[in-house]
Amino acid sequence: MATYPNGLRGRLVRPHEEPPPGRHLLGRIAFLDHHRPPAVRDGVADMGVHLARDERALVTEVWETDAPPTSGMYQDLVYAHDGEYLFCAGQIPEGGSYREPVREAYDAAFDLISELGYPHVIRIWHFINDINRANADGMEIYRDFCLGRAEAVDRRLGPAGEMPAATGIGSLGGGISWYLLASRSGRIRHLENPLQVPAPSYPHRYGPRPPKFARATSLSPPGLDGAGDVFVAGTASILGHETIHEGDVAKQCDVTLANMAKVLSRENLLAHGIDDGRTLKDLRLVKVYLRREEDLEAVRSACAEAFSDTAEIVYFTVDICRSDLLVEIEGIAPRAPA
Ligand SMILES: O=C(O)c1cccc(O)c1
Ligand SMILES: CC(=O)C(=O)O
């Protein structure tokens, strides 16, 4: 019987933890108190993102699969692929303008994806130092980043080209660190949230080019009608296109969680042609970003109530893409094992 390789799984581990027997490390992202350039280290495609304020916060995200991967460097990107999944990571050094280097980095990733044959991009993460600060030309760095990304995406996919779930969040150093996952034969479906304007259609007041990402992406084996693994993008207290509850972290949490629940809901999945439904209790590998350290307890208690007791949840204190946002949350709702 043909089996579809469905062994892609992300986990949060202690640094240096080995994969279980029979499993292989496709990629490793260490959240550190400094940045570490993309490279193959001990045979593993690896990058360190400066996201921790001190050693207590150190945590490592690993992406494991069933087949032994091949790893290497392509231009400035480190990558690994196992025949079904591709992991790729890069860093753009700190600079006065990101538009051009972001365009080039995306170009390189698109080239790699097409050369190696992993056309379905599942999920992208971007960690952007000084995300709310002005660049050398006075443009906010997040907007500068969005400009370069939109130009690269337009060139490859055309203006209507669909992008997967993403995160675009602050970091504590190292320019822009970013990584992505792609698949060869899995079925990818991008989801929107009826409570939110699709990010690619945001009005100009948020920047010259909109952020190109979907609210969630579902990855399923070919032939599966259900949702598969649902990767929920970085989600915040935005209704329509506007930030809601400026200055009130508890209310921002509520709106954020309600947005995530809406994206995953049966009603929303059905509206995207998917006969399935998920709840916040299904989410795993939850990353919570908060702007102010002093909000940690409030955010933690909202998350403890909303998510499963067995979900892995990590908290990072970093800036968020809009200066009026205090919290942003992402997660993955895996499909039930066959
Ligand atoms: O620009 C992004 O890719 C992005 C995606 C999700 C949340 C966010 O703050 C930003
Ligand atoms: C979180 C965020 O920035 C957005 O949804 O646009």
Description:
Residues 61-182 form the Chorismatase FkbO/Hyg5-like N-terminal domain. One of its GO terms (molecular function) is hydrolase activity. Pfam families: FkbO_Hyg5-like_N. Keywords: Hydrolase. This protein has 338 residues and is of the alpha+beta class. It has one domain: 60s Ribosomal Protein L30, Chain: A (2-Layer Sandwich), CATH 3.30.1330. Helix content is 20%, strand content 35%. Strands 6-7-8-11-9-10 form a six-stranded mixed sheet, covered by helices on one side. The chain is globular, with a radius of gyration of 18 Å. The two termini are 14 Å apart. The model has no long low-confidence stretch (mean pLDDT 94). The protein binds 3-hydroxybenzoic acid and pyruvic acid (PYR). Pyruvic acid (PYR) binds next to loops.
Tell me the layout of helices and strands:
Blueprint (H helix, E strand, L loop, with lengths): L8 E5 L10 E9 L3 E6 L2 E7 L8 E7 L4 E5 L2 E5 L3 E8 L6 H18 L3 E10 L11 H17 L7 E7 L4 E8 L3 E5 L24 E5 L8 E7 L2 E2 L2 E2 L5 H16 L1 H6 L12 E7 L5 H11 L6 E5 L9 E7 L5
